[in-house]
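SAMPLE LOG
Freezer: B-3
Tube label: C17
Construct: single chain, 163 aa
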Amino acid sequence: MINSAVKLKSASRNPIVFIIIFSFFLLIVSFLYDYLTEIIGLEYGINVVQNNEVHNRTLTYKIVLACFIAPIIETYFFQSVPYHILKEKKFENWKIILCSATLFGLLHFSNLAYLLFGFFSGIVLIVAYIYWEGTRLSKVIIVCIIHVFHNVLVLFSDLVNLK
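STRUCTURE (predicted):
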């Protein structure tokens, strides 16, 4: 048991391991979202996935937005700012996680399914923000990298239609 805790502690200081672990968690959230929306569509004939305004944009626009602009802005406003404001007010981590993830989910609201996807993705990102303990990269940078990596994978899967 103590050996596991030491390994987890060291992972929270190794940026590559940390990014891989939290990117994996985001991929699980994405796969569950895709799976559940597909099942609902097949089982009930309901298209719960609606295209948003970004869906019909050029690839260059999507890359710039999803891989540069959105991760930076979203990490700052939906992980960093809530964390520091609520931590200053002595909120417990679980309350910070709930507030941050709710804000992140609301930002991604185009339908109920995507709101839930945003909420659970927000949980992964704020937990990464809270638990990153490395010294070479700030919490904002590490979460941005995780977010960018996830968005690149999503864009790639859309391009090759892996869904």
